[in-house]
């Protein structure tokens, strides 16, 4: 392939990726946009309006809390299990890897109805049938693979088993081993997993919609209803889409930057002898 | 003198294989013992049992005066060096060495002093602020050694510490480990599959096979007079000939040598002797033909094939290179071995 055609392909690919984001950004800033390449005029009114509308702001806050809670629960469940799988019982890893495929085998809507029906099946759980707690559970089940994969990779790359044994024979308690040795050496994996989990939960529509109906309106639920409503606010939807995009983008860049200035984490003893 | 480390009837079973089969071993204070054997012989299992990383199924381990059989690894008075260094990548050289002291809540000033001493001991004071990935393999293993020694452990455990290094650095670091262990005076256990490494580094060598210790002796003794067949064939590149036992219970290799067979030998016995104990003559002993002469520097190795009634035997003979220059392939020679140099085992 020649140099020219490579650049041309890369250019086309960038246009494919960037154009929708750019169009959404322009739409969120447009006064009116009628059948031309660029909007007729520009305004910040949609941004101001969106962020001063209580319904939007509370949807945003709900989504943030939902996503943060999901990340915390996923980390609390996956991290210890995976660590144990690495240092003692490798079978745990196999089981987790298999479970991680399930959310991709089932459509999210099916998963959501399943959770709802299950909760409605017993007297004890019925009060929770349309509770946001169930949404968190659903999001945990859905998004944990995105935490599992990078963290599992980071643990393998760091050789956590050997590092743990070295810490143990140095006299470190299990907690000291975890916080001083293991976590610092898989930090990039944890951060990557956290942002992916956050993004999955933050942008998820079906589970939130099916389980809570409209009683717990998250940002995606609001966005869909705003688009369906003829008196809705499509420019406001664009504002929130861009806002979400920027939020994720900035956090991703920050995470990518934390890896720099630190020593490369290769497998101890392999590939780093000179 | 009480033992520094005392292992009694240690047994460890994985599935259907016995990694450790009723192993007992006593180590005197200040001694370096090498656990030597092929892979899967149980040497690493024994080391990890002493460390507390793999608990025993049966048996007991004492370090100094105290029974540590049930004590977790972090509370045992040990320091451990791993094959692949296992330095903490997120810490500098100084922080790595200081880690055991930090988790033991030593004071900062005390820690700094001890780290300084150790950096000097391993000759890496200038590299204190480097990260592990900025060091060579040999340097990393030195740091790992310093980290293991930092809390002044009663026992230093080394798990194939040289196996991941280049041949050129291996001997240097081997001698340095020995020098440092002597200087510090700590008791040490050194696991290796390399018999010359074991001989060079240890006060005593424990030869292991299939979960058991076959014999424990000082290197010269194990080299000169191995008492087990396995040790005799595993250590050094020996000649091993399967020979018939006579009616008068003598093992005879033509006119080369004749020795009394062990009681257990029935029909056949294995005669083992070292290549440097073979004498090549003009007419004495059994007749053979020189196959090839391999030049090894100070010595040369001469391969001689001897035709016998029970089939051909090829033996190798180590000679000073000047003496070996007298032999050329195809030459007829006589082979003689002094009977006291031949060890005979039941076949």
Automatic annotation (TrEMBL), chain A:
What coarse category fits the chief subcellular location reported for this protein? membrane
Q: Which GO terms describe its biological process?
A: transmembrane transport
Membrane spanning residue stretches: 64-83, 95-113, 133-151, 190-216, 236-256
The question of whether Cell membrane is a record keyword is answered with yes
A Pfam family recorded for this sequence = BPD_transp_1
- PROSITE patterns the record matches: ABC_TM1 (PS50928)
| SUPFAM superfamilies in the cross-refs | MetI-like
Provide the ABC transmembrane type-1 domain boundaries: 60-255
Q: Keyword check for Disulfide bond, yes or no.
A: no
Against InterPro entries, the record matches this protein to: MetI-like, MetI-like_sf
* Membrane topology value: Multi-pass membrane protein
Any one annotated GO CC term: plasma membrane
Where found in the cell? Cell inner membrane; Cell membrane
Could you list this entry's UniProt keywords, alphabetically sorted: Cell inner membrane, Cell membrane, Membrane, Transmembrane, Transmembrane helix, Transport
Q: Which family does it belong to?
A: Belongs to the binding-protein-dependent transport system permease family.
What this protein is called in its record is ABC transporter, permease protein, putative
Species name? Mycolicibacterium smegmatis (strain MKD8)
């Amino acid at each position: 392939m020649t140099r020219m055609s490579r650049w041309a392909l890369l250019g086309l690919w960038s246009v494919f990726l960037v154009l929708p984001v750019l169009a959404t950004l322009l739409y969120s800033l447009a006064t009116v946009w009628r059948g031309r390449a660029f909007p007729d005029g520009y305004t910040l009114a949609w941004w101001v309006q969106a962020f001063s509308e209580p319904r939007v702001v509370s949807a945003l806050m709900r989504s943030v809390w939902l996503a943060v809670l999901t990340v915390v629960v996923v980390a609390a469940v996956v991290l210890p299990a995976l660590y144990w799988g690495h240092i003692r019982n490798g079978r745990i890893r196999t089981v987790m890897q298999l479970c991680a495929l399930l959310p991709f085998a089932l459509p999210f809507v099916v998963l959501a109805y399943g959770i709802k029906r299950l909760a409605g099946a017993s007297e004890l759980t019925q009060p929770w049938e349309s509770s946001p707690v169930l949404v968190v559970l659903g999001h945990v089940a859905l998004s944990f693979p995105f935490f599992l994969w990078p963290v599992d990779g980071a643990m393998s790359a760091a050789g956590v088993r050997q590092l743990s044994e070295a810490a143990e024979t140095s006299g470190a308690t299990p907690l000291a081993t975890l916080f001083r040795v293991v976590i610092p050496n898989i930090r990039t994996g944890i951060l990557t997993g956290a942002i992916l989990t956050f993004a999955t939960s933050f942008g998820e529509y079906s589970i939130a919609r099916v389980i809570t109906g409209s009683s717990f309106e998250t940002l995606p639920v609001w966005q869909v209803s705003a688009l369906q409503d003829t008196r809705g606010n499509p420019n406001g939807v664009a504002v929130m889409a861009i806002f979400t995009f920027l939020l994720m983008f900035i956090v991703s860049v920050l995470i990518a930057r934390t890896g720099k200035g630190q020593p490369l984490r290769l497998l101890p003893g392999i590939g780093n002898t000179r | 003198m009480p033992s520094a480390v005392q292992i009694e009837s240690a047994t460890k079973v994985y599935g259907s294989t016995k990694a450790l089969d009723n192993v007992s071993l006593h180590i005197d204070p200040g001694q370096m013992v090498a656990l030597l054997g092929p892979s899967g012989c149980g040497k690493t299992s024994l080391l990890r049992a002493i460390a507390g990383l793999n608990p025993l199924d049966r048996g007991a381990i004492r370090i100094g005066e105290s029974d540590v059989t049930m004590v977790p690894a972090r509370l045992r008075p040990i320091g451990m060096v791993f094959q692949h260094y296992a330095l903490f990548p997120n810490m500098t050289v100084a922080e790595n060495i200081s880690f055991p002291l930090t988790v033991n809540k030593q004071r900062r000033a005390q820690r700094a002093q001890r780290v300084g001493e150790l950096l000097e001991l391993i000759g890496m004071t200038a590299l204190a602020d480097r990260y592990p990935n900025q060091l060579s393999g040999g340097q990393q293993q030195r740091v790992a050694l310093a980290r293991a020694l930092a809390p002044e452990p009663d026992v230093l455990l080394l798990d194939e510490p040289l196996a991941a290094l280049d041949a050129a650095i291996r001997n240097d670091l081997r001698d340095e480990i020995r020098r440092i262990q002597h200087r510090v005076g700590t008791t040490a256990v050194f696991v290796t599959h390399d018999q010359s490494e074991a001989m060079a580094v240890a006060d005593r060598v424990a030869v292991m096979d299939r979960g058991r210790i076959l014999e424990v002796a000082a290197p010269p003794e194990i080299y000169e007079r191995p008492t087990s067949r396995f040790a005799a064939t595993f250590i050094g590149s020996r000649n091993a000939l399967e020979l018939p036992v006579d009616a008068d219970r003598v093992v005879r290799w033509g006119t080369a040598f004749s020795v009394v067979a062990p009681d257990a030998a029935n029909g056949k016995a294995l005669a083992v002797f070292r290549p440097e104990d073979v004498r090549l003559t003009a007419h004495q002993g059994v007749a053979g033909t020189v196959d090839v002469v391999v030049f090894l520097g100070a010595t040369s190795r001469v391969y001689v094939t001897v035709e016998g009634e029970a089939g051909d035997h090829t033996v190798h003979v180590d000679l000073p290179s000047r003496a070996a220059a007298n032999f050329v392939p195809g030459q007829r020679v006589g082979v003689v071995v002094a009977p006291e140099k031949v060890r005979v085992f039941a076949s």
